[in-house]
Design brief:
Layout (H helix, E strand, L loop, with lengths): L10 H13 L4 H14 L9 H5 L12 H13 L1
């Protein structure tokens, strides 16, 4: 069963997301549902960190005001927007 959900999202993010969804022949609703399903299952599907990746831990010192989520979002938009 599906139900409506109202979200408040930046206009430009919506526009870029709609373009991306269209390029994948999917609806924005479908993309969002897939994402939400993925994060909802995340605790059950733990990803094991390899030794190589673990060895990189602490090798990068970010400024105190560094917002990695914002940078990640911007890079995803740049790549797929």
């Amino acid at each position: 069963m599906t139900t409506k959900l109202t979200l408040s999202i930046d206009k430009e993010v919506i526009a870029q997301s709609k373009r991306y969804a269209a390029s994948q022949n999917r609806s924005l609703s479908d993309l969002i549902e897939s994402y939400l399903r993925t994060i909802a299952l995340a605790p059950e599907n733990k990803i094991e960190i390899t030794h190589k990746v673990r060895s990189l831990q602490g090798s990068f010192k970010a400024p105190p005001d560094f917002d990695y989520k914002k940078v990640l979002e911007e890079e995803i938009i740049r790549k797929h927007g």
